[in-house]
Amino acid sequence: MQPLNILYQDEHLVAVHKPSGLLVHRSALARGETIFLLQRLRDQLGKRVYPVHRLDRPTSGVMVFGLSSEAAALLGEGFSERQVEKRYLAVVRGKAPEQERLDYPLREEDGTRPKAEMPAMPAMTDIRRLDSVELPVQVDRYPGARYPW
């Protein structure tokens, strides 16, 4: 297995690239999985690591881990108190507005009960279309395929 791409490391934290498709840690949502980012990073560094936040399985991006429980707790406060700005880049199919603010509460999934029963958490997302391309490829009933970034 190829080593994880470590983007930054000091005595308190490590930032690593999480590939798409890899779970961060064990979860009731994916009982059959055996490979996790947390374990791979721990094995690669030869020490315990503590996740500070999470990324969904299909999402690739930067994950921050504390190298002690104290460092992880302090870093986690920054995330929970919204002192950390997160940016996501995505290519989607269809049309996307030039710019828009989405005020749409999100629900956690923990595998113990239906998502609809989970409490909704406030979430504000600003989106901006950076570019788009249209390909002459039929997708379903549409004669062309649009892909905004």
Key features?
single chain, 149 residues, alpha+beta, Pseudouridine synthase, 2 domains, 10 strands, globular
Summarize the structure.
With 149 residues, the chain is α+β, with helices and mostly antiparallel strands.
Describe, in plain words, how this protein is organized in 3D:
The protein has 149 residues and is of the alpha+beta class. The chain has two domains: 75 residues, Pseudouridine synthase, CATH 3.30.2350; 50 residues, no CATH class. The protein contains two helices and ten strands. The strands form four sheets. The protein has a four-stranded antiparallel sheet with strand order 1-2-4-3. A two-stranded antiparallel ribbon has the order 5-8. Strand 1 and strand 2 form a beta hairpin. The longest helix is centred in the middle third of the chain and has 12 residues. The protein starts with 5 loop residues before the first strand and ends with a strand. The mean pLDDT is 89.
What characteristic shape results from the CA principal axes? globular
CATH architecture term of the largest domain = 2-Layer Sandwich
* CATH C-level name of the largest domain: Alpha Beta
- What multimeric state do the chains show? single chain
CATH superfamily of the largest domain: Pseudouridine synthase
In sequence order, what are the helices and strands, one letter per element? EEHEEHEEEEEE
Distance between the termini: 31 Å
* DSSP strand content: 25-35%
- Write the CATH fold name of the largest domain: Pseudouridine synthase
Number of helices: 2
CA radius of gyration is 18 Å
Quickly give the structural class.
Answer: alpha+beta
How would you write the strand order of the largest sheet? 1-2-4-3
What does the largest sheet look like?
A: 4 strands, antiparallel
Low-confidence sequence ranges: none
Mean pLDDT: 89
